[in-house]
Design goal:
The protein is mainly α. Helices cover about 40% and strands about 5% of the residues. It is globular, with a radius of gyration of 16 Å.
């Protein structure tokens, strides 16, 4: 499998998420506990060290400034992140991304089969 780069990431953001409410953001691994890294991304306190693009609607800016940095998300703990989510491998993420780009899975020639 080819590694994902910023070009693939940008195309996926625009294709999949530009017309719905979206929070698409990446960040560095700074903690041994990945749940803490998730909280940093949700709090918008880190940026991706590779400079990858983010996608987020501006409609929640006031809430982020006046309520909490993670708005509109709940204030979570690392323990809650672990209980409600789980990490995926790079290959699993690529498969999920390919599935999502298929307009609800009904495309005659799926993205993952194209050369």
């Amino acid at each position: 499998m080819n590694p994902i780069d910023n070009t693939v990431w940008d195309a996926a953001l625009e294709r999949l998420l530009d017309d719905v409410y979206t929070f698409a953001r990446t960040g560095p691994r700074r903690h041994e506990d990945w749940g803490m890294d998730v909280l940093d991304v949700m709090d918008r306190s880190v940026t991706d060290p590779r400079g990858w693009r983010t996608l987020e609607w501006k409609s929640d800016k006031e809430g982020r400034e006046s309520i909490r940095a993670s708005y509109p998300f709940l204030s979570l703990t690392a323990e809650q992140v672990h209980a409600w989510t789980y990490p995926v491998t790079a290959s699993a993420a690529a498969e999920l991304l390919a599935s999502l780009t298929q307009e609800w899975y009904y495309e005659a020639r799926p993205v993952r089969t194209r050369a």
